[in-house]
Amino acid sequence: MSHADHTRDPCPYVILSDFGGAFSMGAIGGGIWHGIKGARNSPKGERLVGSLSAIKARAPVVGGNFGVWGGLFGSFDCAVKGYRQKEDPWNAIISGFLTGGTLALRAGPKSALTSAVGCGVLLGVFEGVGVLMNRVFAQPVPQMQLPEQAAAPAVA
Predict the structure, then answer these.
(1) Distance (Å, rounded) from C-alpha 75 to C-alpha 24?
(2) I need a labelling partner for 100 at 20 to 30 A (CA). Which of 57, 92, 114, 124 fits?
(3) Has residue 72 got a pLDDT over 60?
């Protein structure tokens, strides 16, 4: 692997890390979402109780769904890296395609293909924005002067 990302852990640990991170994001985001939803759908004097009840009932489910997506994506990402022997944005796009297709497989081949293409396109957009941001915010490479240009006297 010539372009290996040495800032991340090896693949088995990356899968667990991705699963845990996705679960955490889903649980926190689901807690916020369902907390607001539970408060809005409760009668006036029961808003706090309704909010907490909705959080306890739905936030772990959303976290679990996010976790499954993150774990599958990490697994496919490691498999694609191992197969291709390179690390580039295509790995994430292929992994997103495979993850979307796998998660929708129970609904049939048409739904699986639609979901796979949608996830692949979404990951392609994410990777494209990441590459664009890296180019925009990258430090400019300073121009080096050749020794002959620096020592040349000015002719008047």
Answers:
(1) 18
(2) 57
(3) yes
